[in-house]
Each structure stands twice: as structure tokens, then as C-alpha cells.
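Note to self: keep these together.
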Amino acid sequence: MLPSPVSPPGSSSAKEASASPKNVTIRLPATERKYEILVASNLLAEAGHLIAKHVGARRCLIVTDENVGALYRARLEAVLVGAGHDLLPTITVQPGESSKSFAVLQDLLDQIFARGADRKTLLIALGGGVVGDLVGFAASIYMRSIDFIQIPTTLLAQVDSSVGGKTGIDTDYGKNTVGSFYQPRLVLIDVATLDSLPEREMLAGYAELVKYGLLADASFFDWCQAHGARLLNGDRESQIHAITRCCACKAHIVAADEHDKGQRALLNLGHTFGHALESVWGYSARLLHGEAVAIGTVMAFRLSSELGLCPSWDADAVQEHFEEVGLPIKPPEGKYDIDQLMTLMGQDKKAEGGKLNLVLVNGIGKACLVRDVNPYPVKVLWKNIIGL
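Structure:
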């Protein structure tokens, strides 16, 4: 079990703000680098001063998408200028997974060059996981690397993609198959931005949030069962507690395995199944990433149960909780090819020498990497969950 950085929330108003940011530090022993993750409500209002405090007064370049930019771009620009930062014209990309592509990356780099960014310029990723992954990758290769920070505005990005330094784009060979490990200088998480999310996007992020309890901390899964509805309904204290706890869990794992050679693979619980489904649906809005992860997590627990690794009642508990909050536990109706799904799973980054390696579980809070999994029970599971 990983340590919890904050005590469980008590009773408070649903919109209560944090008096001061919760702080999680990611330390990377191999290089002696570290950076802060700050979590609070209405943190955008302090972004300019916080960036100056942690990174210094800088020439800044915001990259966002059209949807997020319409909500928060002007506010962030104002607080940056007010805190003494020099500001280059903001770059806006199209929203959606399709922006994680070579074409959009090339266009983004061209625009960064056109604005005169130098090696001292600070890129600011303002948005969800797509913007964070794209901007982080661009920062890692622009002039052989420049600094960037993350200001994630979705629950999924706040608990997962903004933390840990995985950046990249998608290719025809799968999700995030080209990228780099490149850490931000600072992560600012303003839970007030969650108010602008549609319910479906909140639920998709919640699937990634619950994942941390399922892979490493059974007591956090217990907390999610008791408090998940409050979090999804906008309770500030619950949101801050859960996001901080997830970030602390990920920080612990990343510090021990920055480049994904061992323990960090456990963070991909449910993802090998989920990424295969996302690929089938063309990474479209028909199946959001968090929804695919929820389905994949249910499948990982079911397969673990079938293989005798974990009790069936743990798999039942996971499925029941996802159903209770409104997450899907089966793929959308459609025409599926089992062989295609298996091929896509074989392209997963954990695969080695044609062998299928999966993150499975020995129970709730006890994820494990199982190598050279027999493909037959996996095919049977696909048939059962699809209804063939």
C-alpha cells in the first residue's frame, strides 16, 4: 500500500475551496531533479505568481485547444502579465485525440518557431491530456528541449497524464507509440476547472482515478466506494483529496521507475485492453479513453479471476462500482474482429518478442505484471464481453 498524503475529507460545502494548495513533490533520484504538483481550487488566479516562485519570471507561450481556450485563455494570459512574465501570442490547436499526430506536432513546432521562442521560453500546456501530451513532446524536442509546465483542466489529465513525464503522439501503430519521457517543471491543478466538464468527461477521468486504488491502495478504492458520488457531484474537498492522493501514488511509482522499465507498467492496469478498443473506434468520441480504461480494467480483473490470480468477488466489486457511478463495463455495440483485437494488444508497448504481457491483479490494490500470457483465455474473454 502506498502512503496517503492527506486525511479523508470531512463534511463541508460542495464548493468549498482549499485555503492553500496541497503539495506533492516528484523526486527523480537518478538525476536529482524534482518538481512540485500543486492542487487547490481557483489556482488559476495565482498561476502567474506560482510560476514565478517555482520557475522564475519567464517569457511564456501558452498552448491550448479551442474549447479550453475559450474558457481560460484570457484569464491565464492576464495573470501571467500581471505577475511580470513576458507573453508570446497563444497557440490554439483543435480539440480531440486527432491532434496527437505528426502533422499537428509539425504545425505546432512551426508556430513556436514563428513566435520567436528561444531556449529560455517556457511552454505552458493548458488543457486536457491531448494538449499536455502534445506540448510536452514538442517541448522535449524543440531546440533539443525547453522547459514546460502543465495546467491540466480535465479530471483525467489531473490524476494521470499531466504527472510523470510521459509525452507523445499517436500513430497508425497505436496510441502514444511515438514520444519521450520528459518531465514538466511544475504542475498546477485547479479543481475549479472541473465545473466546465460534461458529466461523461468527468466519469472518464474518474475511471483513471479509481485505477490508483485498484493497482496499489485498496483503502483508496474503499474511499472511492464511499465518496466517489460526492466527488463527481462537485464536492471540492473530495476532489482535492482524491487528486492529491492519486498524484502522490503516481509520484511514488515514477520516482522509482521514471522510464517505464518495471514498476511503472502497473499504471497501465486496464490499458492494453482499453487501447485496443480505442484503436478499433479510431480514437474517436464514440469511446473516450477513460471509458476504454474502465472496460479494460473490468476485463483485467475478470481475466485475473479466470487465471486464479484473484478472487471473483474482487472482480465483482470493481464492476459493480463502475456500474453504480455510470461507467461502461462493456464495449459499444459494433462489429468486432477478435483477431484484430489480439493483434492490437500485441502492439502494446509492454509486449516483448511477440509475447503478450499484461498488467493483472492478485486482488484489489495488488497489481502485477504477468509475462507471456496464454492468448486463449484472452480470446475467450473478448468473446464473452463482446457477446459473441
